[in-house]
Amino acid sequence: MFKKRIVVKVGTNVMTNRNNRIVGPILKNLVRQIAYLYERDIITILVSSGSAIAGKEVLGRSDEENPSVRRQIYSSVGQPRMMRHYYTMFHDYGMRCAQVLATKRDFAPGKYRQNMINCYEGLLKEGIIPIANEDDAVSLSMSMFTDNDELASLVADLVNADTMIMLTDIDGLYTGHPKHDSSKLLNEVKVHENVEKYVQESEKGEGEGRGGMESKLRIAKETACKNIPTYIANGKDEDIILDILNGKKVGTKFSV
């Protein structure tokens, strides 16, 4: 029986390079850390982005004009490609993994939620690493997650996780733009603290990047309020998951 359960969400910016290609060594390093914890009776539920990028690697440019349908196409093709990566890497450590696709509807109270609980509990009991992602092929606008950060939070609550870690391509939450010398990394944030102002200041004029950190901050606070300590940290650091669980001052921790 595993002593702890953790949820690790890895974003697209962590696992891709500047050319929007999946970086194999990053995934291997992630799996290595999960395997290390597994041997110490800590099991990980992995929430993984990357399926759309993986689909683009296979298909190249799509002629589909509808962006929603184009996303469905890329994700549908990319999902098995991502799972092949993970299956091979976990197999090298003598471990098994499984794909769990879901829409927001599946977390609503009732039979769908109970079915999700049964699925996760069954996998965890067997020592199988669940790899969660949105079911992009069938999800509609009303049943879509805001992003995989939201999915990770819902999964963490569903499985009564001890910790949730959101891996991104920056070291955590800063008091200003991460590239400015005057900005400082916040190692710990209490949910009642008004740190949203830092996101607004640091992301001003950054375009699409603004929503990403705003979402992470909101989700981190919501998850911490459920008594699940939550971290935002740099997934490209070699031992980031292990460092967090060993109590090192890395990333930004959110707690009540």
UniProtKB/TrEMBL annotation:
Where do the annotations place substrate binding?
S49, D136, N148
Q: In which pathway does it act?
A: Amino-acid biosynthesis; L-proline biosynthesis; L-glutamate 5-semialdehyde from L-glutamate: step 1/2
Which CDD domains did the record assign? Answer: AAK_G5K_ProB (cd04242)
InterPro entries named in the record: AceGlu_kinase-like_sf, Asp/Glu/Uridylate_kinase, G5K_ProB, Glu/AcGlu_kinase, Glu_5kinase, Glu_5kinase/COase_Synthase
Example of a GO biological process term: L-proline biosynthetic process
| Sequence similarity | Belongs to the glutamate 5-kinase family.
Keyword terms of this UniProt record: Amino-acid biosynthesis, ATP-binding, Cytoplasm, Kinase, Nucleotide-binding, Proline biosynthesis, Transferase
**GO CC terms for this protein?**
cytosol
| EC number(s) on file | 2.7.2.11
| Species in which this protein is naturally found | Mesohalobacter halotolerans
Protein name according to UniProt: Glutamate 5-kinase
